[in-house]
Amino acid sequence: MMLQSVAWAQGAGGAADSAPGLLSLIPFLLIFIVFYFLLIVPQQRRQKKQREMLEALKKGDKIITSSGIWGAITNLDKDTVTIQIADNTKVRMQRDHIASIRASNES
Predict the structure, then answer these.
(1) Is 51 exposed, middle or buried (0-12, 13-18, 19+ CB in 10 A)?
(2) What pLDDT, in 10s, does the model give residues 17-60?
(3) Which residue in 2, 20, 59, 89 has the fewest CB atoms around it within 10 Å?
(4) How many domains is the chain built from?
(5) 81 contacts 98 by C-beta, under 8 angstroms
């Protein structure tokens, strides 16, 4: 008889039974929000900054490619860039592979 009363007491809930289902979703929502602000938003900002840098390229800019090659832009097309990496050496590559613009005081 003791076991029946304990089981009956645990089973009686009524409207309160729906709340634990919603409360169990709160940790997942909080984790998603944290991931969004720590991972997704900074990545979107970096992509926007990189896109703006690529659109602002002009002839004569000194750049560094994503593979580490240093050079100066000699010609720009819509999707490609010609880079002079030595006195008589020019390389044509995709615009997307430019990592950064060098400061004018760097050699």
Answers:
(1) exposed
(2) 556 777 888 999 999 999 999 999 999 999 999 999 999 999 99
(3) 2
(4) 2
(5) yes
